[in-house]
Specification:
Elements (H helix, E strand, L loop, with lengths): L4 E5 L9 H14 L3 E8 L7 E5 L2 E7 L7 H5 L5 E7 L3 H10 L4 E7 L3 H4 L11 H16 L1
Parallel strand pairs: 1-2, 1-5, 2-4, 5-6
Antiparallel strand pairs: 3-4
C-alpha cells in the first residue's frame, strides 16, 4: 500500500492534554508506518506568529488566532490536497474548514470527538436550541451520506 497523505485538523494546540495526545500519538504512529501526516491547528497565544513545527517527526501548521473570532484565518489558510482529512473535536472554525475547504481537497473525510464535547461547554447540547448542535448535525449528515 502506498503511503497516505493525512491531514489532522483541530481547534487549538495550546492545551497539551486530552485531544492533543489522541491526535498527536495517532499522528506519530501513522508516520512511523510510513504515512505523511500533517496537523493543522491554531495557537491562541498573543504575540505568537504563524509557524511550522515538527514534533516527534510530525509536521504541525499553527495559525495564530489570539481571539476566537479570528478562526477565519484557519478557514482561509492554504491546505494542500490529501487522501484523508480527519477532524478532531469539531469546534466551529475547524469544522467549517473541514466541511467546506477540505471536502474539496481530500478523498475521504473523517471526524470524531470524545465525550468531553457533549457536556461542555453547552448545557443543552442534545437539543436544537444551540447553533453548534445544528452545525454538528449537518457535519454528521454530510459525513454519513457523502462518504
Amino acid at each position: 500500500m502506498p503511503p497516505l497523505t493525512i491531514h489532522f485538523i483541530n481547534d487549538c494546540d495550546n492545551w497539551r492534554r486530552g485531544t492533543y495526545f489522541r491526535y498527536h500519538n495517532l499522528a506519530v504512529a501513522l508516520t512511523k508506518l510510513g504515512h505523511n501526516v500533517r496537523v493543522f491547528s491554531t495557537d491562541t497565544t498573543l504575540g505568537v506568529k504563524d509557524r511550522e513545527e515538527v514534533r516527534d517527526g510530525v509536521s504541525h501548521r499553527l495559525i495564530n488566532t489570539p481571539f476566537k473570532i479570528t478562526f477565519l484565518r484557519q478557514f482561509l489558510d492554504d491546505y494542500p490536497p490529501c487522501d484523508i482529512a480527519h477532524l478532531f473535536q469539531p469546534q466551529l472554525g475547524p469544522a467549517l474548514t473541514w466541511l467546506i475547504v477540505l471536502s474539496k481537497k481530500s478523498k475521504v473525510l473523517f471526524y470524531d470527538w470524545d465525550d468531553l464535547l457533549v457536556t461542555a461547554p453547552f448545557k443543552n447540547f442534545q437539543t436544537n436550541q444551540n447553533p453548534m448542535t445544528t452545525l454538528m448535525g449537518q457535519v454528521k449528515q454530510f459525513a454519513t451520506y457523502h462518504y
